[in-house]
Amino acid sequence: MKQEYTITVYTENQVGLLNRIAIMFSRRKINIESLNTSPSEVEGIHRFTIVINETEDVVRKLVRQIEKQVDVLKAYFNTNEEIVWQELALYKVPTDEIAEKVKVERLLREHGARAVVIRKDYTIFETSGHREETDKLISVLEPVGLIEFVRSARVAIIKESRGFHEKLKEFEETEPHPSTRENEYLDQGGNVFVM
Fold first, then answer.
1. In the chain, what's the furthest Cα-to-Cα distance?
2. Which of 12, 49, 75, 111 has its CA 20 to 30 A from that of 124?
3. b vs e for 118-142, b when ≥16 Cβ sit within 10 Å of the residue's Cβ?
4. 7-56 tens-digit pLDDT
């Protein structure tokens, strides 16, 4: 059965990687509902957050394929119950309409919104939440003349995650970087460098 999954991919920030990942989805005819890229908690490591509607089996195979990409360090998939997530939304409405027809303070309080720009000709409100929450404010503002609306991609944190930097530490403990290995010839300098 199809359901919403959030795929989190930790990568090195390389040109062309987004295109290679997007091709994996298009080849399988999987529609990306939402895509966000951002820095992660580890310097030099970027995080992709991708939302799709698919079966668990398809998502599992897709994540394995994504992890095979050279610049991908780790990929996870989670249901909505396993993550904390938000989307940001902006709404532009005519200032005269909103001032006359709606009590602004009540509107802001009921929908957890705030005014970010107030001009004579328009006002821009901002709110964050789940899609259903940001959609509710659309239905309230449409009758008063919603001029423009935009919603960001999902940002998500995995509830059970200890952070990717912990995964890197674990990896380096089991697979030490070559530069950290002890030199087997260190105490045999006289024998190795004889001329």
1. 94
2. 49
3. eeeebbbbebebebeebeebeebbe
4. 999 998 777 888 988 999 999 999 999 999 999 888 888 999 999 999 99
Give residue limits of the domains in the chain. Answer: 3-83, 85-151
Please tell me the class of the 85-151 domain: alpha beta
Tell which residue, 77, 70, 63, 62, has the closest CA to residue 17.
70
What would the two tokens of residue 13 be? 């920030």
Q: Assign 182 to helix, strand or coil.
A: coil
- For domain 3-83, the CATH superfamily is ACT domain (3.30.70.260)
Residues 6+ apart with CB under 8 A from 46: 10, 11, 12, 13, 37, 38, 39, 40
